[in-house]
Amino acid sequence: MNEFDAIDLRLLDALQADASLSNQDLATRVAVSPATCLRRVKRLVEAGVVERRVAILSADKLGAGLSAILEITLDRQGAEHLDAFEARAVQEAAVQQCWRVSPGPDFVLVVQLADMPAYQALTQRLLTQDANVRNIKAFFSVKRAKFDTRVALPSPSA
């Protein structure tokens, strides 16, 4: 599914803004019938365009006020070593995002933790006990200027 018409794009835009809308409210917002809305959203979900619908929580209000971006460089970069580290990283609840990148470090992790002791515990579990981790570079957030989960949408197909 590579081509989207104006209705698909309005639906995707509305869902990115508020995935909790009822089908009726979504249909009204996009100016289509509820049946059309339901059929199109189902098609977008089945095609994998809509991966999932989630609630975005306030980390600060839940006691997870320390955000960090970690650059991880491994000693050995064979596929089995990269896969092994990635498997361990994605199992950590504090790891919100895990990116395998190139060039530069092997991985970039976005982590959300309660505080510096929680960060220290994570680094002990995930990084310093792994003999294959050569280098860790951590960047700690002092201010979040922007946070958005929206994907820029293409222009509608003719």
TrEMBL record:
Keywords: DNA-binding, Transcription, Transcription regulation. This is Lrp/AsnC family transcriptional regulator. InterPro entries: ArsR-like_HTH, AsnC-type_HTH_dom, Dimeric_a/b-barrel, Tscrpt_reg_AsnC-like, Tscrpt_reg_AsnC/Lrp_C, Tscrpt_reg_HTH_AsnC-type_CS, WH-like_DNA-bd_sf, WH_DNA-bd_sf. Pfam families: AsnC_trans_reg, HTH_24. SMART domains: HTH_ASNC (SM00344). PANTHER family: LEUCINE-RESPONSIVE REGULATORY PROTEIN, TRANSCRIPTIONAL REGULATOR AZLB. GO terms for molecular function: sequence-specific DNA binding. The keyword Electron transport does not apply. GO terms for biological process: regulation of DNA-templated transcription; response to amino acid. GO terms for cellular component: cytosol. It comes from the Bacteria. Residues 4-67 form the HTH asnC-type domain.
